[in-house]
């Protein structure tokens, strides 16, 4: 019985904390709320940097959510809101980095390395095929 | 040559990872680069800590370089930075404006009374709204603003005697040569 009380208490606390975590932002429509969630999920909290603005409990993140909310109410587009934040906190606030000369390495680096590896492999295989003897090779000491 | 390839690959990778470790010990990965360097400081109008009826705005500050030091009584790193400012602030040759960030004015006053006041004036931003325009995301942070109101340098984290001697003072000297 006691144990059950404990569980109920724990659940109650969870609900209390969850309720606390939600900002009292009122949205006109479900679509607007989804747009807000989508936008804040793409933005980085600057205090706890592994969290999005949507998830973060940092005071600054909460303040920024309110700013974003207000700008949405004022009819600003997602791009304008992002620009507002980038102008103050650089591309660092974006979880999805923009494509520009300084991020080329980031965007194309992995692909370039794969291509380089594939080219190297092709080159080696072709070279071996060309130099391979027609008859089976004699017993080799280093046959492994 | 072909038999050396795996070794070469290994050495290259080890070099890359080694560089990564070295790079990350030299740079704070959490540091958010400021896009405001070289750009005009945002307009501000903030009340003085000692006299909230009086506000200081950006236009009044034009004409001479100055430092803005973001601090708060709740900020632990500011406590580490404070003795450095107490010692160095007067010798920098530019006004050091204290920017009291998201703080209770009474707590800030008590903190300055206890530890000393190195600032030529202290402005308050209790809500932190103006600080967002400056790209502040914590305390302490320090901005060097030139006579034309352009942000020239930003330090994230506490000022140390080394940072002041190696980075800040040369930048201040350069600014003074620019504007006679």
From TrEMBL, chain A:
Keyword check for Chloroplast: no
Domain of life from the UniProt record: Bacteria
CDD domains named in the record: CcmH_N
InterPro entries: C-type_cytochrome_biogenesis (IPR051263), CcmH/CycL/Ccl2/NrfF_N (IPR005616), CcmH/CycL/NrfF/Ccl2_sf (IPR038297)
Keyword Glycoprotein set for record: no
One GO MF term attached to the UniProt entry: metal ion binding
Signal peptide: 1-21
Gene3D superfamilies on file: Cytochrome C biogenesis protein
UniProt GO cellular component terms: plasma membrane
TM region(s), chain numbering: 104-125
Residue stretches making up the CcmH/CycL/Ccl2/NrfF N-terminal domain: 9-135
GO biological process: cytochrome complex assembly
A matching Pfam family: CcmH
Function: Possible subunit of a heme lyase.
Record protein name field: Cytochrome c-type biogenesis protein
Species, as recorded: Oleiagrimonas soli
UniProtKB/TrEMBL annotation, chain B:
Organism of origin: Oleiagrimonas soli
Record's protein name: Thiol:disulfide interchange protein
Gene3D superfamilies, alphabetized: Glutaredoxin (3.40.30.10)
Gene Ontology annotations of biological process type: cytochrome complex assembly
Subcellular location(s) per record: Cell inner membrane
Membrane recorded as keyword: no
Gene Ontology cellular component terms for the protein in this record: outer membrane-bounded periplasmic space; plasma membrane
Membrane topology: Single-pass membrane protein
Location of the Thioredoxin domain: 35-177
Keyword Disulfide bond (UniProt): yes
Keyword terms, alphabetized: Cytochrome c-type biogenesis, Disulfide bond, Redox-active center
Family: Belongs to the thioredoxin family. DsbE subfamily.
Record Pfam families: Redoxin
One Gene Ontology MF term: disulfide oxidoreductase activity
């Amino acid at each position: 019985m006691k144990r059950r009380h404990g569980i109920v208490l724990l659940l109650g606390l969870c609900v209390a904390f969850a309720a606390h975590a939600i900002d009292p932002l009122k949205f006109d429509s479900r679509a607007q709320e989804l747009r807000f969630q989508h936008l804040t999920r793409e933005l980085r909290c600057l205090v706890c940097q592994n969290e999005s603005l949507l998830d973060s409990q940092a005071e600054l993140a909460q303040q920024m959510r309110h700013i974003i909310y207000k700008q949405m109410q004022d009819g600003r587009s997602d791009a304008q809101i992002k620009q507002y934040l980038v102008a103050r906190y650089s591309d660092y606030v974006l979880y999805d980095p923009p494509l520009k000369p300084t991020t080329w390495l980031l965007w194309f680096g992995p692909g370039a390395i794969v291509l380089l590896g594939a080219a190297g492999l092709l080159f080696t295989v072709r070279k071996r095929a060309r130099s391979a003897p027609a008859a089976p090779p004699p017993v080799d000491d280093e046959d492994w | 040559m072909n038999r050396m390839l795996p070794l070469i690959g290994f050495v290259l990778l080890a070099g890359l990872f080694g560089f990564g470790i070295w790079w990350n010990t030299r740079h704070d990965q959490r540091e958010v680069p400021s896009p405001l360097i070289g750009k005009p400081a945002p307009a501000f109008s903030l009340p003085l800590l000692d006299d909230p009826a009086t506000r200081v705005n950006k236009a009044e500050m034009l004409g001479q370089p100055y430092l803005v030091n973001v601090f708060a009584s709740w900020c632990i790193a500011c406590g580490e930075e404070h003795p450095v400012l107490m010692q160095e602030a007067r010798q920098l040759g530019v006004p050091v404006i204290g920017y009291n960030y998201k703080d209770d004015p009474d707590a800030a006053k008590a903190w300055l009374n206890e530890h000393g006041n190195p600032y030529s004036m202290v402005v308050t931003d209790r809500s932190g709204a103006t600080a967002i325009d400056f790209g502040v995301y914590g305390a302490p942070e320090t901005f060097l603003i030139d006579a034309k109101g352009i942000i020239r340098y930003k330090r994230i984290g506490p000022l140390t005697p080394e940072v002041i001697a190696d980075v800040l003072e040369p930048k201040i000297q350069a600014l003074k040569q620019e504007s006679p």
